[in-house]
Every structure is written in C-alpha cells, then in structure tokens.
C-alpha cells in the first residue's frame, strides 16, 4: 500500500470523524448532564443540513452567503431543540427514561415528514463558494480543500467547547447540574433554564455538523438514522458526557470506516457496533467517562 | 367477595372465548386482503406482547427486539430456502436460534440498566442487521430472500391465517400464564423497586435474564410466523425503526396491561392502512401520536378502558 493512499484515506477518515465528533459532542453533552438520550439528535443534524441548503440556494448572490447558511443551520437546530425541550421533554424528566425515549422517538418522525413537506423527498446538492472548493497540494498530493478545512474546523470546535465547559461560568453551571441538580437549584441557579440551554447547545452542535458537512454531501431524506447510530457509538465508546472521549472515539470511528473499507469492506460496516458491544460489556461508562 | 372474584374470572373467560370465536369466523366475512392484514396484526401483537414482558412488565426499554425477530425469521427462512431441513425442524431451529441469541445478548445486557441496557440491545440488533445486509451470498443482502418454499398448505391465505391464529393464541396463553405466575409477580416487584425486590430475596438478575430469554424466544416465533406468512425475509426485519415500532405498539395499547400490545398492534396497523390512504404524511401523524400518547395518555388504550371500567363499577357501587 502506497503512501498516498494512506494519506488519502486518513484525510477522508478524519473528515468523517470530525463531522461526527461535532454531532456526537452534542448528544454526549446532553446525555452527560441532562441524563436524557435524545433520539432526535440525528433530526437536528438534518435540520441544519436542510437549512444550509435553503439559505445557500436562496442567497447565492450575496457575499458570505455560505457562512450565513451555516449560522442559520446552527441557530435553526438550536431553536427547534429549545422548543422541543420546553414543550415535550420538560414534562417527562421525572417520568424516567422510558418516556424520554418515546417522546424524542416521536420527534424523529415529525421532523422526517416536516423536511419532506418543505423540501420534498429528493436529494439537493449544496454548493460552497469557489474559494473553498477545489484541491490544494499537500505533501505532493492533491487534497480536497474543503475536507482539510472541516478537519481544522472540528478541532477548533473541540478546543472552544473544551474551554467553554472547563473555563467559563456557564461551563461551571453545566458541570454543576451534571453532578447534582438539587444542589444547584438550592444555590440559586435556575436549573430549568440551564437545562434548556444545555439542550439547545447540544442541538446547535448537531445542526452545525449538518450545516458544515453540506458541500461534501447532499441534503436528502433518511440520513438522520445513520448520524444517530454513529453518534450513539461515539458517545458510548467515549463515555457519556466526555468531550475528549468523544473526540478520540470519533477519530477512531472515522479511521476505521475509511481504512476498513479498503481492507475488509464487509466487516467495516459492523465493526463499530461490535466495538460498542465490547465497550458496553467491559466498561459501560466508556473510555473516559466516570462510573455512575 | 369471593363470589364477585369468581364471577369476574368467569366473565373474563367468556370475553376471551368470544374474541377467539370472532377471530375463527373472521375469514368468512372479510376479503382476503383484510384477512392478511389481520394475520399481520396477530403476528405484531405476539411480538409486542413478547417485548412487553421486558418493557412494560420489567420496566426496561429494549431498542433492539427487532434483532430477535430477525434471527428467528432468517434462521427459519434460510434453512427452508436452501432445503436443508424439513419444515418442522426449521421452525424449531428458528425458535432455538432466537432463544440462543437472547441468551448470549441477555447474559451481558442484564448487567446494565436504563440507557446502557437500551443501547446494548440496540447495538446487538444492529450487528444482526449488518450481518444480514452484507452477507449477500447467503441472505440476499438488501434485496432479501423472496419466495421461500413453505409447505403448499400455507399458500392459501385462509389456511395461513388459521395457522397463525393458532400459534399466536397458544403463545399468548403461555405468556399470560407466565405473567400470572409467581415469577410474573416477582418481575412486577423488580419493576417497581429493584433494590427492594432484591432485598426480599428475589434474585433480580436471574429473574430479568429468564424474562429476557423468554421474551427473545417469543419474538423469534413472531418472526418465523411472518416469514411463514409472507414467504420472504428482508433486512428491514432487524432495523432500528422496527424495534421502535414494537415499542410503540406497547405504548399505544397500554404497556401495563397484558392485552395492550395486541390491541396496540391492531389499532396501529389499522391506522397505517387507513391513514396512508388519505395522506402520504403518515410518519408525521405517527410521530405526533407517539408524543401525544407519551405526554397525556400514558396508560394507552387498555389503560384508559380499565380506568373507565373502574369508574363504571364505582358508580354502580360494586367496588
């Protein structure tokens, strides 16, 4: 196997890994601090992706339209997530995980059809501005520019998220409600509002992943399940609530995908699930999570 | 008191008998297309009831029961398709395969709780899904296997219907007995308070494990019946969405009632047939229905009816 194939596969694996990291960071954050498994997380990704498409196709003339599209996707997903938290998840926090699964499960179907109603069931390509597409020469190899950008972007998101959670006051509150909800509310923190905020942040990350991946994929129906399942895998391997764990797991998953297809294409599809089974049976709290 | 109790048992027996008779004479009145819908309802009802042994009865969410359904279906379908064994052996091997898979998965899964449990079963079912979809040479991959040679007697929809009715009735009866047994009561105790159940001497893990394996076996039987009825196997049987559908049956019908999932299956498939006639946005209706039921209608249909029945009795001063 030659050097350039290795490099090519690494870039495509890392790209996929970084996009998945941004999506999975959201679900793991929500799972870690709210203890809610948001099954509609993949739907937030879809919302981001479609909003990006909508803005890109409407405002293709104006400058910086692509950045507006990404922001629109992120904000759209986070507003949808906020409404969802307030209207349907808040009443079931105390009802145990059964009802949390069910209401978020219902949202999947609703979003699936809303998207179909608005944009139809066909595939829509998204075009990035010219200076972002094309290839650049990298170690004597032509690499797609946008993929490299996505890798850097993923790392930036990781650093910002890490600093946000560990260095800011909001981050402190998030860590606080993770450990003890009652104690935080006794300390005068509006826990309900913090929950909504964390949930919106999680959904925003999913929307951001969906919107930023637009130019190298197409907006089409039925992608939410794939993203949801992969986010599950990353969340489990990395550990509930662990951002660093999610980064490692996402890179691992991306590389397994891209190299697995090269060597053992048949097993590459099932290997992540197998890995998830092993982690859950040996270390249910994941690589970097904390045992409950 | 004892007279009322006895009377109640008798009346519920009468209802069961009446329902059974109605099902027996249904093919005389309905068109073949509706008979096949009822047959599918019965199969889904069995799968839902089997899942409910874990879900409603033990209070543990399984997001992968479609995996057991598919293991039963594929084992049965493949054995028949390649003519390896006679029909009866294929049927038994299907049940055994689902049971065995349940034993292996359950062994690890019961050590986990809530989210971990749900995710573990989900991953296990996705492994089955992957195997079924990538092993083209044997399972037919995404296309599935079509035209599985079942005995000629099942080619008639009516015959097939009666066979399904018989198997489902027997399985539901067995599940009912399990639910009414001391073992079933122990499962209730585990659902209500795991730690307390443990401290009064119930071996929580062993009980949940046994319930899990039973549930897997009966879900496998439902899968076999489906193949027997449709004569084809698809990857979709093991799909994540399929597992969710099964959970929805339990929720719709009422997961705290034995007949809930069966009632849920009837209502769900009926709605599916009717609503898709008027609108292509059936998933939207379904999703809203799921959210509505989960938020405001937690007992499901049977829970609602039970409550009405209680109010009715209270008004007549019989309770």
Of all chain pairs, the largest interface belongs to:
A-B, 41 and 42 residues
Tell me the major beta sheet of chain B.
Answer: 2 strands, antiparallel
Tally the structural domains of chain B: 2
| Backbone structural class of chain B | mainly alpha
Query: Order of strands across the widest beta sheet of chain B?
Result: 1-2
The chain-level mean pLDDT of chain B equals 86
Q: Helix content range of the residues of chain A, please?
A: over 70%
Structure summary, number of beta strands of chain A? 4
Tell me the overall shape of chain A: globular
Return the CATH architecture of chain A.
Orthogonal Bundle
Kindly provide the radius of gyration of chain B, computed on alpha-carbon positions and rounded to a whole number of angstroms.
Answer: 20 Å
Largest sheet of chain A: 2 strands, antiparallel
Global outline of chain B: globular
Structural class of chain A: mainly alpha
Side-by-side strand order of the widest sheet of chain A: 1-4
Oligomeric state of the chains?
heterodimer
The CATH C-level name of chain A is Mainly Alpha
Number of DSSP-assigned strands of chain B: 2
Note the topology.
The complex is a heterodimer of chains A (292) and B (319).
Chain A: H1 3-34, H2 41-58, H3 65-89, H4 97-119, E1 124-125, E2 135-138, E3 141-144, H5 145-167, H6 169-179, H7 181-186, H8 191-213, E4 218-219, H9 224-238, H10 243-263, H11 265-282
Antiparallel strand pairs in A: 1-4, 2-3
Helix pairs in contact in A: 1-5, 1-8, 1-9, 1-10, 2-3, 2-4, 2-8, 2-9, 3-8, 5-6, 9-10, 9-11, 10-11
Chain B: H1 2-29, H2 32-54, H3 65-81, H4 87-109, H5 114-134, H6 136-139, E1 145-146, H7 157-180, H8 182-192, H9 194-199, H10 204-230, E2 232-233, H11 240-253, H12 260-278, H13 282-296, H14 300-315
Antiparallel strand pairs in B: 1-2
Helix pairs in contact in B: 1-7, 2-7, 2-10, 2-11, 2-12, 3-4, 3-5, 3-10, 4-5, 4-10, 7-10, 8-10, 11-12, 11-14
């Amino acid at each position: 196997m030659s050097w350039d194939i290795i490099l090519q596969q690494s870039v495509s694996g890392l790209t996929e890994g970084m996009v998945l990291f941004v999506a999975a960071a959201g679900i793991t954050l929500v799972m870690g601090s709210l203890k809610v498994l948001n099954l509609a997380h993949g739907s937030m990704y879809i919302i981001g992706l479609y909003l990006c498409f909508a803005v890109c196709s409407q405002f293709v003339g104006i400058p910086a339209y692509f950045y507006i599209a990404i922001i629109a996707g992120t904000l759209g997903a986070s507003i949808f997530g906020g409404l969802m938290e307030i209207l349907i998840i808040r009443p079931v926090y105390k009802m145990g995980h059964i009802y949390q699964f069910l209401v978020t499960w219902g949202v999947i179907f609703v979003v699936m059809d809303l998207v179909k109603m608005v944009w139809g069931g066909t595939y829509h390509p998204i075009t990035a501005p010219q200076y972002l597409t094309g290839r650049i020469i990298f170690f004597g190899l032509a690499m797609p520019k946008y993929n490299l950008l996505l890798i850097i972007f993923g790392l930036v998101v990781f650093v910002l998220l890490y600093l946000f959670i560990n260095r800011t006051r909001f981050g402190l509150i998030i860590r606080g409600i993770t450990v003890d909800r009652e104690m935080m509310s006794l300390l005068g923190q509006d826990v309900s509002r913090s929950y909504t905020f964390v949930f919106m942040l999680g959904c925003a990350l999913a929307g951001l992943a969906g919107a930023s991946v637009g130019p190298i994929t197409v907006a089409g129906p039925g992608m939410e399940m794939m993203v949801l399942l992969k986010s599950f895998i990353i969340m489990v391997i990395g550990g509930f609530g662990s951002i660093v764990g999610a980064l490692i797991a996402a890179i691992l998953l991306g590389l397994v995908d891209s190299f697995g297809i090269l060597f053992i294409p048949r097993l590459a599809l099932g290997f992540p699930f197998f890995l998830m089974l092993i982690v859950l049976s040996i270390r249910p709290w994941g690589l970097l999570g904390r045992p409950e | 008191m004892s007279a009322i109790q006895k009377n109640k048992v008798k009346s519920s027996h009468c209802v069961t008998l009446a329902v059974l008779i109605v099902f027996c004479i249904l093919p005389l009145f309905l068109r073949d297309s509706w008979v096949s819908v009822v047959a599918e309802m019965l199969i889904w009802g069995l799968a839902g009831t089997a899942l409910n042994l874990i879900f409603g009865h033990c209070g543990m969410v399984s997001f992968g029961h479609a995996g057991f359904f598919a293991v039963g279906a594929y084992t049965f379908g493949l054995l028949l398709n390649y003519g390896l064994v006679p029909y009866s052996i294929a049927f038994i091997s299907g049940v055994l395969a689902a049971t065995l898979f349940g034993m292996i998965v359950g062994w690890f899964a019961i050590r986990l709780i809530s989210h971990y449990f749900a995710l573990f079963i989900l991953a296990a079912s996705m492994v089955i899904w992957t195997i079924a979809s990538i092993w083209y040479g044997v399972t037919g991959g995404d296309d599935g296997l079509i035209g599985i040679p079942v005995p000629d007697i099942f080619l008639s929809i009516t015959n097939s219907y009666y066979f399904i009715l018989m198997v489902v009735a027997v399985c539901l009866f067995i599940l009912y007995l399990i639910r009414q047994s001391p073992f079933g009561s122990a499962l209730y105790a585990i659902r209500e308070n795991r730690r307390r159940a443990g401290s009064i001497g119930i071996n929580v893990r062993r009980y949940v494990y046994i319930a899990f394996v039973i549930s897997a076996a009966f879900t496998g039987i439902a899968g076999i019946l489906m193949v027997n009825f449709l004569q084809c196997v698809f990857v979709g049987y093991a799909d994540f969405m399929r597992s969710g559908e099964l959970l929805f049956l339990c929720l719709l019908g009422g997961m705290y009632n034995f007949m809930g999932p069966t009632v849920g299956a009837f209502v769900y498939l009926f709605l599916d047939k009717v609503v898709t006639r008027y609108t292509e946005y059936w998933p939207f209706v379904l999703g809203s229905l799921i959210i509505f039921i989960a938020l405001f209608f937690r007992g499901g249909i049977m829970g609602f009816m039970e409550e009405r029945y209680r109010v009715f009795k209270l008004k007549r001063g019989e309770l």
